[in-house]
Amino acid sequence: MKKIGISLLIAAVGGAVAIGGYKLFENKQMESMTFEEQQKVYFANNPGNEIMSSTGNPDFTEAAAAVSPGVVHINVTMTARGSRGGGASPFDMFEEFFGMPQRRQAQPRQARASGSGVLISPDGYIVTNNHVVEDADKIEVKLTDQRTFEAKVIGRDADFDLALLKVNASKLPFVKFGDSDNVRIGEWVLAVGYPLSLQSTVTAGIVSAKGRQIGILGEQGQGSPYGYGQPQEPIVRTAVESFIQTDAVINKGNSGGALVNTRGELIGINAAIASPTGVYAGYGFAIPVNLVKKIVNDFKEFGTVQRGYVGVNFREVDEAIREEFKIDDIHGLYVFDVVKDGAAAAAGIKKGDVITKVEDRVIYSSSDLQERVARLNPGDKLKLTYKRDGKERDVTVTLKAQDTKKSSADEEVNASATEIFNKLGASFTPASDAQKKKFGVNSGVVITQIHRGGMFEYFGVEKGLIVTHVNGKPVNNVDDVESALGSTKRNIVRITGVSESGTVEFNFPIQY
Q1: Are residues 196 and 70 in the same domain?
Q2: Domain range enclosing 427
Q3: What is the CATH number of the domain that holds 56?
Q4: What's the pLDDT at 242?
Q5: What are phi and psi of 484, to 5 degrees?
Q6: Are residues 301 and 316 in the same domain?
Q7: Is there a contact between 490 and 476 (Cβ–Cβ < 8 Å)?
Q8: Are 391 and 432 within one domain?
Q9: Are residues 274 and 164 in the same domain?
Q10: CA–CA separation, 139 vs 149, rounded Å?
Q11: In Å, how far from its chain's centre is CA 446?
Q12: What is the C-alpha separation between 301 and 154, in angstroms, rounded?
């Protein structure tokens, strides 16, 4: 009996070790997957009742019940200072007008704002709009079950108006990805969010248009990542707009919330309204989920968006273009110039060509090409069709990274953790083994972006620096940085890093 007992004990221990090892392996595998791959694994292992598309008399109850728990309320605390106008005293304005030194500075004050977000994984990743969190010092996320969490920003980008947040929690409800390419004009959709400071709210409408550009991101105009204009003065536009337009009621506070189909699948992230009054007046706009998938995976892996470029300056073909350049094309993009050594130039595209198709799909507006390219990375291949001398030609373009410097406003991507981290204003990605070996360090995260207005920018910390220690603790990922910031004493954050110039140290005073 004693031998049997020992054998059973050994078997039990061995089984536990095997299960534990499998779970560890499984967790590592999940971490390397994209959000879409993680969702497919989850739903394969946890099949639920299929939510059918509404026919006949619309019934949205199942879709609303499935989605609402995965849409969260985001409350943001930010620091606001008095402006030069309304808030200043007459004496302050007198001094400023005559160039006299200010006797006192405007005191910072706390301001609050709110929006919505969508949980996309059970371990706490949340997608929302960049404009919801871009000035945040502290971000609080509240679920429909009234639980609250403090969120960190993994990455954000103004050109796409998207941000990825993370809360420390597990087994959270989340919204299933759909396919925005399959969205049809006229189909029923639901908008889920927290408008006008109300609690979770669901509204219904139809898709009224796709590929809409409304000039709300970046400069007014086409918002193309390739630019357009006359060759001698190309106008570079980096904002990406290809909105799904809906008449489902969307108001302030819906930003970052979910646009879903009647099967309860996420097809877009609500981002804007077109209104003469500032409140709902008929049309809302959502970022297509197929673009969202790419951006949030980039945030998770790199901390910033990896963008490939075709390298052409163009304008949509219209009556003025047809008359000026004597072409008879009805649709397409007229190439004004080709970037030297760019992807298009390498593929043989020239000034005067008309790009007519992308991946065999007719180009009706610049957004047709814009969104398709925005889903790809440098090095990815793209099939384009262009017309020259009345003949169409197919060509495969290998996208290239942008090699021109962007303005600080264009590079505004922030990854942070808690209130202190948000004040630092930086985006990180784990240092590679090769980078650690090069500098002879055992730990490190690379600064991939510096956020305008943060402490890193103020003290001149440069992008590319490898931060090895925060408050004396080694760091290898964003969570390590967040944990180390918890040991901040006397409101002083100590940063140690390495670069080509050697070892550097910073002591940042954090003010509240």
Answers
A1: yes
A2: 419-509
A3: 2.40.10.120
A4: 86
A5: -65, -35
A6: no
A7: no
A8: no
A9: yes
A10: 8
A11: 19
A12: 9
Is residue 37 in some structural domain?
no
Q: What is the DSSP string of 143-212?
A: -TTS-EEE-EEEEEETTTTEEEEE-S-SS---PEE--GGG--TT-EEEEEE-GGG-SSEEEEEEEEEEEE
Q: What is the pLDDT of residues 237-277, one digit of tens each?
A: 577 888 999 999 998 889 999 999 999 999 999 998 877 77
Q: CA-CA distances (angstroms) from residue 236 to 311, 341, 407?
A: 10, 17, 11
The strand pairing partners of 127, in sequence order, are: 118, 164
Question: H or E segment at 11?
Answer: helix 2-31
pLDDT digits (tens, 9 = 90+) for 321-348: 888 888 888 888 999 889 888 899 999 9
**Cα dihedral sign for 35, 41, 45, 49?**
positive
Domain boundary at 272, 289, 305, which?
A: 305
CATH number at residue 381: 2.30.42.10
Other CB atoms within 10 Å distance of the CB of residue 487? 12
Q: Which of 52, 47, 116 is nearest to 261 (CA)?
A: 52
Among 305, 322, 338, which residue terminates a domain?
305
Same domain, 166 and 286: yes
Examine residue 21 and state whether it is found in any structural domain, yes or no.
no
Which pLDDT band, with edges at 50, 70 and 90, does 425 fall under?
Answer: confident
pLDDT tens profile 382-424: 999 999 988 999 999 999 886 543 333 333 333 333 566 767 7
Q: Is there a domain that residue 448 lies in?
A: yes
Q: Specify the DSSP element, H or E, that contains 346.
A: helix 343-347
Spatial contact of 276 and 263, defined as CB atoms under 8 Å apart: no
Q: What is the pLDDT of residue 511?
A: 55
Element at 261 (helix H, strand E): strand 258-261
Torsion angle (degrees, nearest 10) of CA 131, 132, 136, 141? -160
For 21, list phi and psi in degrees, rounded to 5: -65, -40
Overall domain count for the chain? 3
pLDDT above 80: residue 35: yes
Question: Does residue 409 fall inside a structural domain?
Answer: no
Q: Any long-range contacts for 80-87 (C-beta under 8 Å, 24+ apart)? A: 80/108, 80/109, 80/110, 80/111, 81/106, 81/107, 81/108, 81/109, 82/106, 82/107, 82/109
Q: Show which residues are catalytic.
A: 131, 161, 255
Give the residue, 455 or 177, on which the prediction is more confident.
177
| 247/335 same-domain check | no
pLDDT digits (tens, 9 = 90+) for 466-505: 999 988 889 998 888 888 887 777 667 889 999 888 888 8
Q: How confident is the model at residue 228 (pLDDT cuts 50, 70, 90)?
A: very low
